[in-house]
Amino acid sequence: MVDFFHAHQAQHYLVLAALLFALGAAGVVLRRNAIIVLMSIELMLNAVNLTFLAFARFPLVANSPMQGGFSQGHAAVFFVIATAAAEAAVGLAIIIAVFRSRTSVNVDEFDSLKL
Amino acid sequence: MNFNPGDLYGVLPALLLAAGALVLLTSEVFLRPVEPDRRYQAWVAAAFAFAGLWASLAQLGDPAQPLFAGAAVSDGFAHIVAAVVCAALFLSCIVAFSYLESLRATRGEFYALALFSASGMCLLAQATDLVVIFISLEVMSLAVYALCAYLRRGKRPAEAAFKYFILGSFASAIFLYGAAFAFGASGSTRLADLAATVRSGSATTLVYASAALLAAGFAFKVAAVPFHMWVPDVYDGAPAPVTGFMAAGVKAAAFATLVRILVSGYGEGGRWRGLIVALAYLTMLVGNLLAVPQRSVKRMLAYSSIAHAGYLLVAVAAMGTSAPRADAAGALLFYLASYGATVIGAFAVVAIIERKLALSGLGDDLSSWAGLSEKHPALAAAMSLFMISLAGVPPTAGFMAKLTVFRSAIEADLVPLAIFGVITSVAGLYYYLRVVVYVYMVPEAKADAVQGGRLLSAGLAIAGCALIVLWMGVLPGSFAALAQSGAAVFGR
Amino acid sequence: MRALDYLSPYLPVLILLLFAGVLCALIGAAATFLGPKRITAIKETAFECGSPSIGDSHSRHSVKFYLVALLFVVFDVESVFIYPWGSLLRDFQAEGLGWFAYVEMLSFMATLALGLVYVWRKGALEWNP
């Protein structure tokens, strides 16, 4: 049974999260600076976090079949944050390695592997 | 609380590999002042990989059971994938040893990263919870990104790693968005609860969106066609032993998870079949077509890897029908094992040639393979064997694998897909056999021998791969039985 | 029309934003057109706490800053797992799994500590270039 009041409330957060996710995806595709591309990926992950939290706070289904219930959405966010931090560390290390070999972080100049 | 400490035994292979990685990292910082020679690391890593292989094979007979309150599962399918991953890691460590030694590039962390990524792959095959899948995926991917950038020679490795990192993280984010939608639709991140929601018929837009996003995320990882752009650059730029490990290990783990998500999470209706069939058509066509003009053997093998992802997708599509799923799952496992053995062997030979090129400063081109049969007849024979196995010619593993996959597709009423697969594999003969022609029939322009010494360990690994390829091609019975026993969990 | 319903509470905010923007533009324009402009050398100098700027504002920072910041973030974020563990420890105890949960967290912390030791021995915390 869907709780329409809650569903209505979740909608705001879901729309915001979808916009943030789209913004991040556009950033990955369009931006030239490697650091900004990395930040766009983090933005996408944070949009997902917001989605998880919106569903955990304003559930669309009556009850969660999971042990711990809807708070599992909060737990998921913890894991995503921790993983995102590790991902940023590896990404930055790779960007530094690229920078050392060509003193630029402009994605357009990464062309040594084109067909 | 449905939690049992004994469940840790179920993830023993992953635990062993992670412990091995920690041992290597600790020894790297504490042993180096005492013992500057790091060659022992390869053998420690190989020993842990062998232990993981033994553990996954020892658990093969155990009955399937859920672990950690349903977050993971211990079943034959996962154990066979773990065994393939551990065997790939074992062979890759041996290949990497001679490769890194001869380039004088043995620094720390290489083997530790390889062990970490393998432990992520083993967990990925067992995970039945979307958050656990995400974490295992990142453990695997982050280590592989770093491995791609391992050689600090020129611009190519770092750029390849960057491309892989950006597109891989993008794919992970898309996957995670799908996981969030699945959580919203079912109130749970467990695949079993998701399946219950799908079964109850209250499938909403949210469920379809989550299925599309999860499948798109994994289509990146398995290199299916609209999402394949990273593959040639990454396979080309990464060190050859790493490429071999990626092609075998990442593919096995990602396909296992794709099957797990689709069949255990969205399975009953099989509505996802159309999506996978479309991906399979595209992937087989584009992979084989784009492999034809490649002059670089590494790039050719990259497009060939895309094409093989297409054949594997045929097996996945066959699991979405009313036909017995176990046959298709067994075909998938057999294909993953045979492709793994073949591709690791092929990239081991490429590693030897690439090392020669790196030392002489030449580019990777078919012409550098000319005349290989005169100086190194054994290497030439092994490379030819791997090429005809990739092409799917009997009596090799590749032939038996394609046969079982196409047979399962026909049993599942996907006859046009199977016919298309056969046609594209025949077309693929051209670019595989071109390598054999260069190796045997084109005379070499100028004589420069492959540097000797330290070839022994790579040679052993190549011989091992060749043996497995021939064994699976001539006497596939025991391997097929093993694959079928692992696939039995998808029965009915 | 449903989409408009969701967004309608934001209408006052939109009006406020428009009003603020128009007002700012009007005041700025009025000051530019009506105010007297007498620029002298002494007016152009830095005032009170300001000091003359040195070099380009787009100077490069040492990569060490990023390295230390990221190491901090990674270790900091891992500690987030201790809070849910702490709040659930009693439930585990009630199940008779108290010691198991304790050992689990100890092994987690030990792995983190191993990471810190690794970073330390690798010299990533040394500030000298």
How much β-strand is present in the residues of chain C?
under 5%
Structural class designation of chain B: mainly alpha
The helix fraction of chain C, in percent, is 55-70%
Number of β-strand runs of chain B = 2
What structural class should be given to the helix and strand makeup of chain C? mainly alpha
**What's the CATH class of the largest domain in chain C, please?**
Mainly Alpha
Number of domains in the coordinates of chain C? 2
Approximate helicity band of chain B: over 70%
Give the C-alpha Rg of chain B: 21 Å
Low-confidence stretches of chain C: none
Any idea what the CATH architecture of the largest domain in chain C is? Answer: Up-down Bundle
Overall geometric form of chain C: flat
Overall form of chain B: globular
Descriptive notes:
The complex is a heterotrimer of chains A (115), B (492) and C (129). Chain A has a single domain (4-109), classed as Helix Hairpins. Chain A has 115 residues and is mainly α. Chain A has 3 helices and no strands. Chain A has helices at 4-30, 34-57, 72-102. The model of chain A has no long low-confidence stretch (mean pLDDT 83). Chain B has one domain (7-490). In chain B, 74% of the residues lie in helices and 1% in strands. Chain B has helices at residues 12-31, 40-58, 76-102, 110-126, 130-148, 156-186, 191-199, 205-222, 230-237, 240-266, 273-291, 297-318, 325-360, 372-375, 377-391, 397-411, 415-440, 455-474, 477-487; strands at residues 65-67, 72-74. A two-stranded antiparallel sheet of chain B has the order 1-2. The longest helix of chain B is centred in the last third of the chain and has 36 residues, at 325-360. The mean pLDDT of chain B is 87. With 129 residues, chain C is mostly helical. Chain C folds into 2 domains: 2-44; 63-122, NADH:ubiquinone/plastoquinone oxidoreductase, chain 3 (Methane Monooxygenase Hydroxylase, Chain G, domain 1, Up-down Bundle). Chain C has 6 helices and no strands. In chain C, 0% of the residues are buried. At the A-C interface, α1 and α3 of A face α4 of C.
